[in-house]
Amino acid sequence: MHVGLEHYLAVSFLLFALGLFGVIIRRNVLVIYMCLELMLNAANLALVAFSRYSALENTATHNHLDGQVFVFFTITVAAAEVAVGLALIVALYRRRQSAHVEDLTIMKN
Amino acid sequence: MNLSFIPWLILFLPLGAAVVITLFTQRNRQVSATLSVAAVVAGFILSVIFVKTQGWQPATSEIALNWLTVGPLHVDFGLHFDALSLAMMLIVTGVASLIHIYSMGYMHDDPGYSRFFACLSLFTFSMLGIVLANNFLQLFIFWELVGVSSYLLVGFWYGKASAADAAKKAFLTNRLGDFGFILGILIVWATLHSLNLVELHNTLQVNPQALGTLATVAGLLIFCGAVGKSAQFPLHVWLPDAMEGPTPVSALIHAATMVAAGVYMLCRVFFLLNPNTMHVIAYVGGFTALLAAVIAVQQNDIKRILAYSTLSQLGYMVMAVGLNGQAPAMYHLTTHAFFKALLFLGAGSIIIGMHHEQDIWTMGALRKKMPATFWTFMVGTLALAGLWPFSGFFSKDSILGQALGQHYYILFAVGVFVAMLTSFYMFRLVFVVFYNSAKTDHAEHAHESPGVMTWPLRILAVASIFGGGFVGIENIYLKQFPTETTQQAASFAHQIVAPFVEAPAAAWLGIGMFFIGLFAAYALYAKADKDPLPEKLGALSRAMRNRFYIDEFYEATFIRVHDALAAVAAGIDWCIENVFIGLIRGGTDFTGRGLRLLQNGNVQTYSFLFALGVAFVLYLVLAR
Q1: Three-state SS across B62-93?
Q2: Lower CB count within 10 Å: N or C terminus of chain A?
Q3: What ipTM did this prediction achieve?
Q4: Which residues pair with residue A100 across a beta bridge?
Q5: Could you read off the pLDDT of B386-428 as tens digits, one per residue?
Q6: CB–CB of B124/B255 below 8 Å?
Q7: How far apart (Å, rounded) are the C-alpha atoms in residues B63 and B53?
Q8: Is the omega angle on the peptide bond into residue B234 within 30 degrees of 0, that is, cis?
Q9: Is the CB of B600 less than 8 angstroms away from the CB of A106?
C-alpha cells in the first residue's frame, strides 16, 4: 500500500480531534494538559508531512525544510510551556488540594 | 500733558479694589473697607482733575482700543467724553464716595463687611463702564454687570429668604428688559452696520431715515432696556422689593447707579428715538410717575416710601426724555441723585437708631433725638418736594416747563398732580417719623448715628440745596443738548429766579402744589397716631397699600403661565430621562445580566465554545 500525504493528514486530524475531545471532556487538569500536547503534536505531524511531500513533488528544489524548522520551534515552545504549566498545576494543587477543573470556577459570573 | 490715562484709572480703580478685596484682604475688614473707599474717592478726585483740565467737552472725545473684529463687526473697548458722560462720571463717583464712607459706619457690625465693599466697588465699576462706554456692545456688557452687582447686593443678606427672592426678582425683571435691549441693539447693527455711538449719531444726522421702517421698533426695543433698569411700568415691580438689600445699597441703586443708567442710556442714544417712540416714552414715564406716587401715599415702610418716590421721580425723568428734554431729564437725575442719596442714607441712620425697625408707625418724635439726621432729612424732603430754592424745585420745574413748551397738557397736569402727591407723602413721612409722640420704646431710646454716617448726610444736604439753581448744572447738559432758547450767560441772580420768568405757570403751580401737599399732610398726620386715610378712602387705600395688586396680577398670570411651561418642560425632561435613557440603561443592564450566565468559570466550556467558533470560521472560509 502506498502511503501518501492524505494518510498522514488523516492521522494528524485524528490525533488533533482526540486531543480536543480530551480537552473538552476530561476533568483532570493534568490529563487536559496531556491532551493539549497531543494537539500540538498533531499539528507537528501535519507540518512534517507537508514539508516532506512538497519536497518530493518539486524535485527541482530539495530544500523545502520550512515546515520541519517550524516543528523544532513548536517543540521548543512546548517544552517551555510544560515547565510553566506543570509548575502552575503543582502550585494549584497545593493550594486547592484538587486538580479538577470544575473546582476551579472562582472567575464565574 | 497727556491725561488720557486718568479715565482708565477712574474706571478700573474700583474693579481693582473689588478684585484685591475678594482675593486677598477678605479677612481684614479694615483694609478692605479702606481699599474700596480709597478707590472710589480717588476716582472722584481724578474726575474733578480731568474735568478741570480738559473742560466739559475735551478735545479728544474718545479713546479706544480695538477689542475684537469678527468679519464686518468691529468692537472697541473705548471711553467717550462729553458733557453728558463727564457730568455723570462726577455724580457717580461723588455720590458713590459718600455712600462708601457712610457704609463704613452702617455696615460696621456685619460679618460680610469685606464682601459688601467688594460688591459695592464692583457696582461702581459697572456703572462707570456704562457712563463711559463708547459703543453699544460695551454699554450692554456693563449694563449686565450692573444687573449682576445689584443681584449680589440686593441679596447681600442671602440667608433671609425675602432678600434672596428680591435679588432674583430684580435680576430676572431686568433680564426681561435687557432682552428687548439687545434685540434693539441687533436691529441697529443690522441696519446701520455700526455699534459706535458717535458713528451712529453721525449716520443718523446725515440721513434721519437710515433706520427705515424699523426705526420705531428699534427705538421701543432699546427703551425696553431702560424700562427694566429704570424700573418703569410695567417692569417697576423689582425696585420696591430691592429694599431688602442694606440701606446704603438702596441709596446707591436709587441715586447714582442702576436706575439712573436707564435714563442716562436714553439720553445717550436719544438720536435713535423717533417721534413715535418719544411719544410712548413720555406716556410710560408719566404713567409711572403717577402710579408710583399714588402707591407711595399708603406705604408704611420708610424705605418703601422712598422707593416708590424714586419710581415716581424716574417717571418724571423718562417723561422728560420722551418730551425731547434730555437736559431737564439729566438735570433732574443729578439733583435727584443728591437728595435721594441723602434721604436713603437718612433713612438708614433712622433705621440704625431704631434698631432695624422700618415701620414709620413705630417711630415718632425723632426730631430731638437725632438732630443731624432730622435736619438733613428735612433738606432732602424739601428738595424732593420741590420748594424754591432747593435743587429739586429747579429740575422738576424744568421738566414741567418742557411739558408745557411741547404742548403736552395731559402730561403737564400729571406732573403737577404728582408734585402735589410727592409733597404729601414726604411730609406724611416727616410728620409721622420726626414729630408727634414716640410710639414705641425703640423710638424713645433712639440715638444719633456716629459721625462717619452723619457727615456724608451733611455734605449731601449742602449739595441738595445748592445743586439746583446755584451752580448751573443745567448749563452743562445744555452744552450737550442745545435748545433754541438756550441762554448760556445767565447771571447768578437770573438763574435763581429764571423759572418764574420763563415759565411762570409751571413754577407757581409747582410751588402751589408743594404747599397743598404740605398742608394736607399737616392736617392729616400732624397729630395722628395711626393712619387716618384707610378709613376715609376704604377700598382705594387698601389697593394703594397693596400696590394696586400688580405683583399679585403678575403672580396669577405671567408667573403662573411660566410655571406651567416650566412644568411641561420638566415633564418632557422626565420622559427623556426615564423612558429613553431608562430603556438604554435597562437594556444594557438586562443584556449584561443575560450574558453573565455564560461566564460559568469552567475552562472546558470556554474551550468548547472556542472550538465551535473555530469550526464556524473554518466553515465560513472553506465552504465557499
Answers
A1: EEEEEEEEECCEEEEEEEECCHHHHHHHHHHH
A2: N
A3: 0.84
A4: A28
A5: 887 788 888 888 888 888 888 888 888 888 889 889 998 888 8
A6: no
A7: 17
A8: yes
A9: no
CA dist., res. B350 & res. B348, Å (int) = 5
Tens digit of each residue's pLDDT (9 = 90 or more) over B208-218: 777 778 888 88
Taking an 8 Å cut-off on Cβ atoms, the answer to whether B604 and A108 are in contact is no
- All three cell numbers of B351, joined, read 433705621
Identify the CA nearest to B252 among candidates B115, B100, B35: B100
* End-to-end C-alpha distance for chain A, whole angstroms: 55
Find the angle CA(B255)-CA(B349)-CA(B534) to the nearest 5 degrees.
Answer: 80
- Report strand pairing: B62-70 vs B73-80: antiparallel
Cis peptide leading into residue B389 (ω within 30°): yes
Residue A4, C-alpha cell as written in the block: 501518501
Question: What are the grid coordinates assigned to B61, written together?
Answer: 472725545
The CA-atom distances, in angstroms, between B563 and each of B97, B115, B532, B559, B573 are 42, 33, 40, 6, 15
Q: Give the closest-approach CA distance of B620 to chain A in angstroms.
A: 19
In contact, B53 and B86? CB cutoff 8 Å: no
Percentage of residues in chain A with pLDDT exceeding 70?
90
| Cβ-Cβ contacts under 8 Å, A23 against chain B | 604, 607
Residue type at B180 in one-letter notation: G
- Give the lowest-confidence range in B198-202, B256-260, B431-435, B437-441: B437-441
**Residues in CB range of B18: below 8 A, 6 or more apart:** B36, B118, B119, B121, B122, B125
Q: Structure pTM? A: 0.77
